[in-house]
Amino acid sequence: MRKTGCCTWIFGDTTLADTAARVAKAGLDGVELFGDTDNTDPREALKILGDHGLTVFSLTPGDADISHPDAGIRARAIDYYKALSDFAHELGNPLISCHGQVGRIAPIASQAEEDALLQESVAQICEIAKGQNVVFEILNRYETHQIRTVAEGLALMNAVAAGNLKLLPDAYHMNIEEADPAGALRAGGDAIGLYHAADSNRVGVGAGHTDFAAQINALNDINYQGPVIFEVNAPGPNPFTPDKGDGFRDIVVEELARSRRVFNQG
Q: Which residue stretches of 164-227 are H helix?
């Protein structure tokens, strides 16, 4: 049976203890912990999650603009990833996810210049995280102007040429960007280091039109051994906040439980 987890940010502004109790209620095995390096004590986090039988599979980064043409902004972003690498070490070295600043959807300089800066920064992050594993998350055009498909991710991997770098495709983003999401997973093969799942409307698996049977088959075909991390929201507008109104956390628990059942059946 495949391990399942979820991103902790989907529960919004609440305590980790409350989040952990809800994740456990949904029947999941672990979490992708938000990388709030300034306000989260890793030892306390491990205890809270461990008390609920949960593993830290991976880390979601905060926004850090690693391809910004301003050198000072990039330096601060790299400093954040240094802190995130230390944070990961204290947590037992879960996967470190990285991406550009969510919501910056056009270059400030030129696309070519910022693509080169992205490559340079990802190489720096992989060097900082030597001895740890990094996954680059592939987003969609409404969240980034860089690396929107598995093919583009593979090109980035080849350019960076770091042994600790893999890719993180997400079913929700693939629904927008990939002509054939299952085919993209197969093309990624052993370069797939982590996988996120939410349906086409970012609600739980089975609430939209994504063909998850095809994606599950593709994951099986490439012998993907990692967890499935659900990044789902309750129904409602604004994809950049999990808070969809009263009772949204209870809805998220229900969506997670249903998502887990779908993947365990597959």
A: 171-177, 181-188, 212-221
Q: In what order do the strands lie in the sheet with 195-197?
A: 165-168, 134-137, 95-98, 55-60, 30-34, 4-7, 228-230, 195-197
Q: Give the type of residue at 149.
A: T
DSSP notation for 144-172: BSS--SHHHHHHHHHHH--TTEEEE-BHH
Could you tell me how many residues make up the chain? 266
For residue 30, give the 3-state DSSP assignment: strand
In angstroms, the CA 239 to CA 9 distance is: 12
Q: Are 43 and 91 in contact (CB under 8 A)?
A: no
CA distance 134 to 170: 16
CA distances from 227 to 2, 7, 168, 193, 260 (A): 6, 12, 11, 9, 11
CA distance 61 to 151: 23
pLDDT in tens, 160-181: 999 999 999 999 999 999 999 9
Looking at domain 13-20+30-196+208-222, which of 2.40.50.100, 3.40.630.10, 3.20.20.150, 3.40.50.800 is its CATH number? 3.20.20.150
Domain definitions of the chain by residue range: 13-20+30-196+208-222
- List, for the chain, all residue ranges whose pLDDT scores fall below the cut of 50: none
